[in-house]
Amino acid sequence: MHNLILVFAALLPSVFLCIYVFKKDRAEKEPWWLLALLLLSGVLISFPVATVSEWLKRVETDIFLPFTTELDGGNYLDGWLFELYRATDKFIAVAMVEEGFKWLVLLAFTKKNRHYNSLFDGIIYSVFISLGFAGFENLLYTMEYGMQTAVIRTITAIPIHLFCGVSMGYYLTWYYIKNEAKAGEKRLAALGVIPDKTKHISARRFFLMSVIMPSLAHGFYNYSYSINKGWSTAVFCVFLAFLYGFCMGRVRRMSNGDMLNRKAVLLILYEKHVAVQETVRAILESRQTKGEDNHDISLDEIYEYIKESSV
C-alpha cells in the first residue's frame, strides 16, 4: 500500500500538467493514441539519456583529472576549476543531453505528421514528451528516497521539465510556420507579385532556439540548485518563480491565439505583403458578388487567383 501511494505521488504532477495542457488545445484535439506514444517516448529516452550522461561524466572526469589536487586520499578541484567542472556537468552532461534527446523525438513526431497542424500542437507534443520523461524520472527518485523527495520535486523538477517542453514546442512550431511563410514568399516572387529581391522571412533562429533555450534554462536550473548556498538558493527560487509565470503565460497566450498552421502562415504573409492583402480583398469581393458568405481563404486559392488574374 505504501509503495502504491509513492507511485501515485510521483506520477500525479505529470498527469495533472498533461491534462492541463491538453485542455488548452483549442483548434483541434490530438488523438489519444498519439498522446500515449508521446508519453511513452519520453519514458523510453530516459535509458539512452542515462547512458550518454554517464559516458560524458566519465569524459569530463578524465579531462579535469590532470588539474586536480590530491588531498586526504582523494582528488579535488579548487576554485574556478571546480565551478567550470560543475557547469560542464550540469549544462552539458545533464541538461543538453536530456533536452537534446527530447528535441530529437519531437522532430520525429512533428515531421510529416498530419495531426501536427495547429500552433498549440508543438507545445502539446513537447510537453507530453517532457512530462513522460519527468514522470518516470520522478518515479525512480520517489521509490528510492520517499515521499519528501516526491513533494520537493513536484515544485522544482517537474516544472523545469514543463517549461523546457513549452519553450521547445513554441520555438519549433514557429520554425515550421516561418519556414512555410518563407516558401510562400518564394512562390509569390515566382508569380511576379512581390519583388525577387524581397528580404525573406527568417526561420533558422527559431530552429536553433528550440533546442538552445531549453538546454540553457535546464542547465542554469541544475547549476544554481547544485551550489547550495544562501545567495544561490535565492537565485534558484527567483528563477523558478520566473519559470512558473513565464511558462503559464506562454501557454495561455498560445492557447488563446491557437489556429491552424495554414491560417498562421497566411496571416504572416497578409501582414507583410500588400499584394496578398489586395488578393484577399479581391477574392472576398468576388464571393460577395456571387452571394457567398465564406471568409476561409487558403494560400493555394490565393496562388490560383493570382495565376488567373495574370493570364
Concise overview:
The protein is mostly helical.
Shape assignment: elongated
**Number of distinct helices:** 12
Task: Indicate the multimeric state.
Answer: single chain
* Beta-strand percent range: under 5%
Main beta-sheet strand count, sense and barrel state: 2 strands, antiparallel
Cα distance, first to last residue? Answer: 77 Å
Helix content: over 70%
Architecture blueprint of SSEs:
Blueprint: H1 2-23, H2 32-44, H3 46-64, E1 69-71, E2 74-76, H4 79-110, H5 121-145, H6 147-155, H7 157-190, H8 204-227, H9 230-256, H10 261-272, H11 274-289, H12 299-310
Antiparallel strand pairs: 1-2
How would you describe what is shown here?
This protein is mostly helical and 311 residues long. The protein has a two-stranded antiparallel ribbon with strand order 1-2. It is elongated, with a radius of gyration of 24 Å. The relative contact order is 0.12. Helices cover 79% and strands 2% of the residues. Strand 1 (69-71) and strand 2 (74-76) form a beta hairpin.
What are the key terms here?
311 residues; mainly alpha; two-stranded antiparallel ribbon; 12 helices; 2 strands; elongated
